[in-house]
Write a structure and sequence with these properties.
340 residues, 2 domains, three-stranded antiparallel sheet, 11 strands
């Protein structure tokens, strides 16, 4: 970064700065933990020599906090995939349940944006389809920050909500579904061959609030890839050209992931096989009635502090899944080694 001309290519420089932030986010906590251990060890020896019970009690509290930090360092070590440090495209899609599910998708959008803000992730809205009566039918964001893809990929799947419906005049309990999809943004670092003859590119006017230009010109872009059925769209910019370029990046990312999935069955389960956005396919349930509980069905991690999670406190769910995934991977490697 100190070399002359580093900032001549802003896009390349930005990628390196992002990589640096990711590396620092691993190294800094380790160094801080090492220093804390040395300091506490010295303090412990003094407290024992002087028989200072109050200091010993304080050290115990510090050790508990340090233990938690070490757990977080361990989790960071699980984010070692080749794409874990990349920015990502993050999508939410309403499923079965009509207006209820559109409102649930909007609640998830609020929950995740709170998580992004708490973790200092930056995000921008690329495309949104509002619900007919309330909420959103779908939304796609680009999210950037340390280990954005690595962490958010843990949220891929169907999310189920059970609550008393605010849209039901008889106040009956309803079940709603929404799906989260996450894919890495390769930022033009990969080359995926796309045959233009296999694409349909539609231009249309962007919906929602966007200023007088956005809503009066056909700047929004939708690209359909016929061989796979993949559809991507972008309406973030007033420039049709920029929206098309962003949509092509998204399509490249999806096609790349499909190729990866063919070589890796586990990735296929993580990124594409969410199944129908309805009953029986959920990775997590958020129950607000008749009791309050959020449970991840993959790891069995659960909490009764529903409001905290809906306000963006997702770290323990993400950590538990990373541990579950690492343990599962280790078991497969052991079985493979025994067979060999």
């Amino acid at each position: 970064m100190a070399q002359p001309g580093f900032w001549d290519n802003p896009d390349a420089a930005k990628r390196i700065v992002t990589q640096l932030s990711a590396v620092k986010s691993i190294i800094a906590p380790v160094r801080a933990a090492e220093k804390s251990i040395l300091d506490l060890n010295e303090l412990l020896e003094l407290a024992i020599d002087e028989g200072d019970d109050q200091t010993l009690s304080s050290i115990q509290d510090d050790l508990e906090r340090l233990s938690r930090k070490c757990d977080q360092i361990e989790v960071a070590g699980m984010l070692s995939g080749p794409d874990d440090t990349r920015p990502c495209f993050f999508s939410i899609h309403a499923g079965a349940g009509g207006t209820e599910s559109c409102d649930w998708a909007n609640m998830l959008f609020r929950m995740y944006t709170r998580y992004f803000e708490d973790n200092k992730y930056s995000y921008e809205e690329l495309d949104i389809t509002p619900g007919e009566e309330a909420g959103i039918r779908s939304i796609t964001l680009r999210v950037e920050g340390p280990f954005a893809f690595g962490k958010l990929s843990c949220e891929t799947g169907v999310h189920r909500l059970v609550r008393i419906s605010p849209f039901d005049s008889q106040s009956r309990r309803h079940t709603s579904f929404a799906a989260v999809d996450v894919m890495p943004d390769f930022e033009n670092e990969i080359e995926v061959e796309i045959n233009e003859d296999e694409l349909r590119i539609d231009y249309y006017r962007a919906g929602g609030a966007g200023g007088q230009h956005v809503n009066k010109t056909s700047s929004a872009v939708r690209i359909t890839h016929f061989p796979t059925g993949i559809v991507v769209q972008c309406q973030n910019d007033r420039s049709q050209h920029k929206n098309k370029a962003e949509a092509m990046k998204m399509l490249q990312g999806r096609l790349y992931m499909l190729e990866q999935q063919k070589r890796d069955a586990e990735l296929a389960k993580l990124y594409s096989n969410k199944g129908e956005i309805a009953w029986g396919n959920q990775i997590r349930s958020y129950v607000l009635q008749p009791y309050q509980m959020i449970k991840d069905h993959r790891t069995d991690h659960q909490t009764g502090n529903v409001q905290s999670v809906l306000d963006g406190d997702l770290e323990l769910f993400i950590e538990s899944y990373l541990r579950y995934r690492a343990e599962k991977k280790n078991k497969k490697e052991v079985i493979k080694a025994r067979k060999e």
